[in-house]
């Protein structure tokens, strides 16, 4: 160890206890792994705080000895970096290992107060134990992903509470200076914080957004709003047979969301995204530089009862009978096109590619969608996350562009559009054989070309894998980059919290 790192370790051991600092080679290897094209990035140590005071002690030691930290929640950010630090040698601060308490569940105001280690599965299970009166907004990703980590990276779900950052209310943050900040009405200088987790905004600037997709501080707890579980929930699904039906799909979804008649987002999955829950690329051969053929895609669609696109949404109500007229109205709206095949809730429950959306929209974490990580062997996985206005002409132009770039690099085109009223986020999934050096290189080149070409058309991303965050920040206007650097210097003057994360130094 270097002298500064050695001094840091000793100071943290004194504050937390020896067993909460781990430098064993097997631990460092585990925390350095990820699914991205680059080689592993091993930390120099992993520390396990048990409280906000412990986090302050770690930050103080890092400032004293100029040791960079890399905080994580549960480390399940698969396809975006997992738990690996921005750069080798940083100290991983694993908040989730010990700081995994549900501090409060308030049934009257429908919120929970949680620490970073509380996963979607943990909160769901506790709510179920308490009578299933409230429901979380689940992702379709890892059930053991952290609720706070996902929200702070601006991840999302699909139901009415889909905006996970928007559903946070009242954070506690340890700044790079070591100060503790509370946001919202928690910022009152009193211990009687009546409105902390029910009122998002207090006097003065609203600072919560500073701590999403940034390295300005370490969030140690937050309130998260929960949805009362309705008596009944029924999904609806439509299957479209042709790739270019996407334009029509987007134009059909838009009015139903502009009026908020459909309370959920629309999940618009292409064939390979849907099939990834249970199928593998039947044409894959090691060393091949070709994407799956259209013939093989059609065969898979037929075998699994799917099409080129699957559209899913959900209604909630007092009973199945009360919901049925709404489903029939949506069915009539989609079937006017002549291209939509309706699949009802009961049928979809027996179809794993559609069951994924049902689980997520009813607040039930699941693992089915993780099956796509094995679409090809080798478990390489990254996510390119651009968006499009809710316009069919724009959506199809970007779809053609994405297909061409994926094909050029021999990648299978896997995408889901999560559609709201005015905007749809496109989840473009790169899956490749990480054990193959050529596939690694092609996956990296594909991501970079997607980034450049979409930006030329005025399209940025909502989230980014750690390896590409600096590239995306370089695409931002100089004023934004300057402001981010200025805030970093103000809140973390010694640059010890995740230097380089999100391209901010």
User: What is the average per-residue confidence, as pLDDT, rounded to a whole number?
Assistant: 97
Percent of sequence in beta strands = 15-25%
Helical amount: 25-40%
CATH architectural designation of the largest domain: 3-Layer(aba) Sandwich
Distance between the termini: 24 Å
Largest sheet composition: 8 strands, antiparallel
CATH homologous superfamily caption of the largest domain? FAD-linked oxidases, C-terminal domain
Total E-strand runs = 19
Cα-atom radius of gyration: 23 Å
Number of domains: 3
- CATH-derived topology of the largest domain: Vanillyl-alcohol Oxidase, Chain A, domain 3
Q: Describe the oligomeric state of these chains in a short phrase.
A: single chain
Specify the number of helices: 15
Overall structural class, as computed from helix and strand content, comes to alpha+beta
């Amino acid at each position: 160890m270097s002298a500064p790192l050695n001094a840091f370790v000793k100071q943290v051991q004194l504050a937390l206890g020896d067993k909460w600092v781990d430098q064993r080679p097997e631990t460092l290897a585990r925390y350095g792994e990820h699914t991205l094209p680059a080689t592993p990035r091993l930390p120099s140590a992993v520390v396990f705080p048990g409280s906000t005071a412990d986090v302050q002690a770690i930050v103080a030691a890092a400032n004293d000895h100029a040791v960079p930290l890399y905080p994580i929640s549960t480390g399940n950010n698969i396809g975006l970096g997992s738990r690996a630090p921005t750069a080798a040698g940083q100290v991983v601060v694993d908040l989730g290992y010990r700081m995994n308490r549900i501090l409060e569940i308030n049934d009257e105001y429908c919120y929970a107060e949680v620490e970073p280690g509380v996963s979607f599965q943990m909160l769901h299970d506790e709510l179920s134990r308490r009578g299933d009166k409230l429901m979380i907004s689940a992702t379709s990703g890892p059930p053991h992903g952290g609720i706070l980590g996902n929200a702070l990276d601006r991840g999302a779900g699909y139901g009415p509470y889909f905006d996970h950052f928007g559903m946070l209310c009242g954070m506690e943050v340890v700044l790079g200076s070591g100060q503790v900040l509370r946001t919202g009405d928690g910022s009152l200088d009193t211990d009687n914080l009546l409105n902390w987790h029910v009122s998002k905004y207090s006097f003065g600037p609203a600072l919560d957004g500073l701590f999403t997709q940034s390295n300005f501080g370490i969030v140690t707890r937050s309130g998260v709003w929960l949805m009362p579980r309705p008596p009944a929930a029924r999904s609806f699904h439509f299957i479209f047979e042709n790739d270019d039906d996407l334009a029509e799909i987007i134009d059909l979804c838009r009015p139903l969301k502009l009026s908020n008649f459909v309370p959920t987002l629309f999940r618009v999955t292409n064939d390979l995204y849907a099939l990834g829950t249970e199928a593998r690329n039947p044409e894959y051969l090691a060393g091949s530089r070709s994407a799956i053929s259209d013939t093989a895609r059609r065969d898979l669609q037929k075998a699994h009862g799917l099409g080129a696109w699957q559209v899913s949404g959900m209604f909630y109500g007092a009973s199945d009978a009360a919901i049925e007229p709404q489903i029939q109205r949506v069915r009539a709206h989609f079937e006017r096109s002549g291209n939509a095949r309706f699949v009802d809730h009961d049928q979809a429950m027996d179809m794993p590619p559609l069951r994924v959306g049902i689980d997520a929209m009813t607040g039930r974490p699941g693992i089915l969608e993780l099956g796509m990580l094995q679409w090809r062997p080798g478990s390489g996985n990254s996510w390119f996350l651009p968006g499009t206005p809710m316009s069919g002409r724009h959506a199809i132009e970007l779809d053609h562009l994405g297909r061409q770039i994926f094909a050029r690099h021999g990648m299978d085109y896997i995408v889901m559009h999560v559609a709201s009223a005015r905007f749809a986020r496109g989840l473009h999934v790169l899956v490749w054989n990480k054990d193959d050096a050529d596939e690694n290189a092609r996956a990296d080149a594909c991501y970079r070309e997607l980034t450049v070409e979409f930006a030329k058309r005025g399209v940025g991303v909502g989230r980014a894998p750690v390896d590409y965050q600096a590239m995306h920040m370089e695409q931002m206007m100089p004023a934004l980059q300057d402001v981010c650097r200025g805030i970093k210097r103000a809140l973390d003057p010694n640059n010890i919290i995740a230097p380089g994360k999100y391209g901010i130094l």
